[in-house]
Amino acid sequence: MEHYFIGTPGKPWGAEEKEAWRNAQSIKRSYADEVVVKLSVLPKGFKRVQYGALPYDESRYPLYAVVPESFDESKPSVLITGGVHGYETSGVQGALQFINEYLERYASKANVVVAPCISPWGYETINRWNPLAIDPNRSFYSDSPAPEAAQIMTFVGSLPTSFDVHIDLHETTDTDNSEFRPALAAKEGTTYEDWSIPDGFYTVAPTANPQLEFQRAIIDAVKTVTHIAPSDEHGKIIGADVVSEGVICYDKKALFLCGGMTDAKFVTTTEVYPDSDNATPQVCNLAQIAAVKAAISAIV
């Protein structure tokens, strides 16, 4: 494969290469227009909280979550996160549509917190990384160098509840092969090889506690909206063993993934395939919403 356009083959990036990569990025859509404005009117019983701002441009990138006006200790608590990878659009827009259309109906059953766009710079530039060439979704650990991860972790830790459920909304796209994984290999000075992009929806469960019945409930719900990714010829999805239809496992805490930042008993990462011939942006949003609704319904 032709080498990535930045860097020297086999040599990890230094500050010069990272700056060259950052300078090659551009704004392609508006966080203010596509995200923030949709949080201006919320369902009854919920409020918008600004929990921080990204230091690259604090006025352009305030960070918001939607939280209950009051927490009820007798109810389970649910955390929904989207846009950890800003380019994964339906994670953001699906979370926003869920807030607008469905959040209020769950208020009597659970304390639901939604952080719809954790990486707004990534959202605007359609990127996996932040401007520091750091992947926020490998950065959920103490003293994280990624402000996207550090600020949401601090906020979640400050809330007057512990979470029973965490649903982290993602996509697997064709650009993983055409852009993001080649860039990662170039940055690390390694060799990149294509992998098979799954054609359909799947979930990633935590290795230590997969809760397969919970994952199956999500898969069954999403089946009504879009197709489930089949395993490849090796019985895998993105290199991981398929443990149930459309379900693989990662060690989320060891990999410092967003899905590992709480000690919730029920955790899933959704993966929607927006590049399918059978998908549209709204189908992808609806798949994310179906997953969220099924995840909450499974425990309330």
Report what the structure shows:
The protein is of the alpha/beta class and 300 residues long. It has one domain: Aminopeptidase, CATH 3.40.630. Helices cover 29% and strands 18% of the residues. The protein is built from 8 helices and 10 strands. It has helices at 15-23, 31-34, 89-101, 120-125, 147-158, 175-188, 212-222, 281-297; strands spanning 46-53, 62-68, 77-82, 111-115, 165-171, 202-206, 236-237, 240-241, 247-250, 266-272. The protein is globular and about 55 Å long. It starts with 14 loop residues before the first helix and ends with a helix. The model has no long low-confidence stretch (mean pLDDT 96). Keywords: Hydrolase, Metal-binding, Zinc. This is Peptidase.
Which descriptors would you attach to this protein?
300 residues, 10 strands, two-stranded antiparallel ribbon, hydrolase activity, acting on ester bonds, single chain, Aminopeptidase, alpha/beta
Number of helices: 8
Give the CATH topology.
Answer: Aminopeptidase
Secondary structure category: alpha/beta
Global morphology: globular
Q: How would you concisely characterize the structure shown here?
A:
This protein is of the alpha/beta class and 300 residues long. The protein has helices at 15-23, 31-34, 89-101, 120-125, 147-158, 175-188, 212-222, 281-297, and strands spanning 46-53, 62-68, 77-82, 111-115, 165-171, 202-206, 236-237, 240-241, 247-250, 266-272. The chain has one domain: Aminopeptidase, CATH 3.40.630.10.
